Amino acid sequence: KRFLPPSLVERAAQGELALDLRPEPRMITVLFSDIIGFTQLSNTLRSRRVAELLNEYLTEMTHAIFEHGGTIDKFMGDAILAIFGAPEEISPNEQVNRAITAARQMYRRLDDLNEQWIAQGLITEDNRVQFRCGIHQGTAVVGMFGGSERTDYTAIGPSVNIAARIQESAEPNSILVSAAVADYLHQDAITKFSPLHLKGVDETVLTFSIHVEHT
Ligand SMILES: C[C@]12CC[C@@H]3c4cc(O)c(O)cc4CC[C@H]3[C@@H]1CC[C@@H]2O
Ligand SMILES: [Ca+2]
Ligand SMILES: [Mg+2]
Ligand SMILES: [Mg+2]
Questions:
Q1: pLDDT tens across 28-51, in order?
Q2: Which helix (H) or strand (E) holds 142?
């Protein structure tokens, strides 16, 4: 169960809680992050070095998500789909707090990676790897899907697409959230962003940008 935070796996092993991974409708908070320009960066490096860079990045991002109790559904190249609120039951408010804190931590860790990669001469100061993150809260069917030969823990539903599409609309190095998420945040932590007409989403989505401290 490598998609679960080790802390949760430990608690289940201790019998502290039972993990029910059967698919069921859940209220979850979906975090979708992606790198801008990873493909361009890949074209400047030998393929082995690209793999090393991607692994360094995904390792750091995994730490940040697991530290805050997130479940990692999948990596899609440099894109990451994480879920807060399943399989562990977490209140919607706490899901948002954990997702935002994880996103901030991901951003800080990428800052450190950029410094490291600049020092190694892999990238220059003016072509740092940039981050975008979309966060949405909504219902989805979450659990183990597949059959006896192969299963995958994932979330099925429009909420996943909405989070990914919000990410696509985010400014570089920013965290963009839907109104459903912003409702749990202090007004001074967010700035209204433009209403979005997202591909595959009928209604207009109101979005808010999270203030991120820049280095
Ligand atoms: C989550 C998703 C796969 C990643 C797709 C994506 C990837 C990416 O790198 C982006 O920048 C944007 C998107 C938007 C649609 C996403 C798809 C909707 C259902 C499917 O499971
Ligand atoms: Ca998965
Ligand atoms: Mg993308
Ligand atoms: Mg990408």
A1: 999 999 999 788 888 888 888 899
A2: strand 130-146
What are the pLDDT digits (tens) for 143-166?
A: 999 999 999 999 999 999 999 999
Residue type, 120: Q
Q: What is the ipTM of this complex?
A: 0.95
Residue 164 near ligand 1, beta carbon < 6 Å: yes
Q: Kindly state if the Cβ of 168 falls inside 6 Å of ligand 1.
A: yes
Question: CA 107 to CA 214: how far, in whole Å?
Answer: 9
The candidate with the shortest Cα–Cα distance to 79, out of 118, 126, 39, 50, is 39
| Residue with tokens 């299963």, as numbered in its chain | 151
* Integer Cα distance of 121 and 15 in angstroms: 48
With a 6 Å cutoff on the Cβ, whether 88 touches ligand 1 is no
